[in-house]
Automatic annotation (TrEMBL):
Protein name stated in the entry: Uncharacterized protein
Annotated keywords: Membrane, Transmembrane, Transmembrane helix
Transmembrane segments: 43-63, 75-95, 101-119
Length: 125
């Protein structure tokens, strides 16, 4: 999960810079043509803020893993369920199926791993 937190922070920085650049160059015909397929900037910023909140929640939960509390496991499961749902919405809105599909696949994989007996035993200690 630490790798996911670091990648999330990097992707948030790149995404925010991209949105700022598109906003700054909004009068350029090439930029307008390229961004015509995207949802309005307000929607893109809301998706960015939701992603930032998910990364912060993930950071808090990854710090809590060594405590081995069952509540932490449950919270991580819900975090990845919400993350998968946001990924599906983002894929539909932005038509970026590859990266959002990978995110969805990883979320499903992690939820599946956290539902195993080994994970239940680890977090029950």
């Amino acid at each position: 999960m630490w790798i996911s937190v670091v990648l999330g922070i990097i992707l948030l920085a790149i995404g925010a810079l991209s949105l700022v650049a598109v906003s700054a160059l909004s009068g350029d015909p090439e930029i307008d043509a390229a961004s015509a397929a995207l949802p309005p900037m307000g929607v893109m910023w809301v998706l960015m803020l939701i992603s930032a909140a998910l990364v912060v929640a993930q950071l808090i939960l990854v710090i809590r893993i060594p405590r081995r509390q069952a509540g932490t496991r449950t919270a991580i499961i819900w975090l990845f369920v919400v993350s998968a749902a946001v990924g599906v919405v983002a894929a539909v809105l932005t038509t970026d199926y590859v990266s959002n599909g990978i995110s969805l696949l990883l979320s499903v994989l992690l939820v599946g791993l956290l539902l195993t007996d080994g994970a239940k035993r680890y977090f029950a200690s």
